[in-house]
Amino acid sequence: MTAAPLKPAAPLSLLGLTPPEITSLMAELGEPAFRAKQVIDWTFAKRAVSIEAMSNLSKGLRQTLTEKFVTRTMTIATVTGSKDTTRKFLLKLHDGRFVETVLIPANPALYGEASDRHTLCVSSQVGCAYDCKFCASGLAGFTRNLTTSEIVEQIVQVEAYSGERMDNLVFMGMGEPLSNYSNVIKAIEILNAEWGIGIGARHMTVSTSGLAPQIKRLADFPLQIRLAISLHGASDEVRNKIMPVNEKYNLDELFEALAYWRSKRKQHITFEYILIKDVNDGLDQAHRLAKRAKGLDAKVNLIPYNTVEGLPWVRPSEPHQDEFRDVLLNAGVKATLRREKGHDIAAACGQLRLRQETELGIIESPIPEKRITINAGA
């Protein structure tokens, strides 16, 4: 029997280390304490692309660090732009797999003001295990969690390429962030820190499909990050059809966890709700959604379905989208309808990565015939 080939070990990246860890490393190497500050400055403030570029370190220390560490573990494979300047970055990882990161320009209609801020949609896993029926990220299943440094490096790579500072992060890319809790939390600490990337905690949003225990755990995390829930159904009957996670944590359990979150924090929860024709866009769902949102003083972000090759769903007509939104507004719920940017660049999460890995033969084409029959007649 032939043994399976060993996967290449993830290189150790300085982008995933905190000051105490770097200080400890320098002490182990017999270096003076000030060396740690130099390494931190080169890694985060100066964004050194290699350890060799850290010119005020001794040659011997640079050589020693190079034997065990790197400052970059991924490369930009593809950048896809759109008419509205949304850009999708396909990043190649050290093991040959891919993740996506999407740069979204400010939308005054959404934010209520003219703004030049740049939002980056960040991935937390390669693939996804949660099998939401409308999403491309999980079509080929789950491969692995991203490391802390791989999460941080997405921001570093996009800033270097674009020449623009990212000032708003949303963990809404590939994967379920709360299923990779420890790496995501450590990455958030590095991204927030003044010595790190320096993005305000209130400008970071973690989106989850509804892992109730982890939501409670996140509520006790000290940084004032924001929370978004991929809801997509206002009753268990509808949500069960398209989000298998609901069978483990139903709406009652989810909303009990959200009530705990609200008891700990002032920030409003956001419900992300993808509108899918004849699946979850009935006005009965709009009225249920309004009631649930009002109970938590939550905001609702309506997103017309973004076409994914191989999946049967379609977006409702624009008049019906407006009608669904107006039910919420008339009930006193703060709601936005985001006819999303990037519809012409395969902007649905995981779509570009899926296409690339299929073309390279990394995975077989996962045409999801089982999904086409799940909601037949819905």
TrEMBL record:
SUPFAM superfamilies, alphabetized: Radical SAM enzymes
EC number, UniProt record: 2.1.1.192
Keyword vocabulary terms for this entry: 4Fe-4S, Cytoplasm, Disulfide bond, Iron, Iron-sulfur, Metal-binding, Methyltransferase, rRNA processing, S-adenosyl-L-methionine, Transferase, tRNA processing
Pfam families membership: Radical_SAM, RlmN_N
Single GO molecular function: tRNA (adenine(37)-C2)-methyltransferase activity
Cofactor(s) listed in the protein's UniProt record: [4Fe-4S] cluster
Entry binding sites for S-adenosyl-L-methionine: 175-176, 207, 230-232, 306
Cofactor: binding comment: Binds 1 [4Fe-4S] cluster. The cluster is coordinated with 3 cysteines and an exchangeable S-adenosyl-L-methionine.
CDD domains membership: Radical_SAM
Domain Radical SAM core as annotated: residue spans: 114-344
Family: Belongs to the radical SAM superfamily. RlmN family.
Further remarks about this protein from its record: Reaction proceeds by a ping-pong mechanism involving intermediate methylation of a conserved cysteine residue.
Name of this chain's protein: Probable dual-specificity RNA methyltransferase RlmN
Organism of derivation: Prosthecobacter dejongeii
Originating gene: rlmN
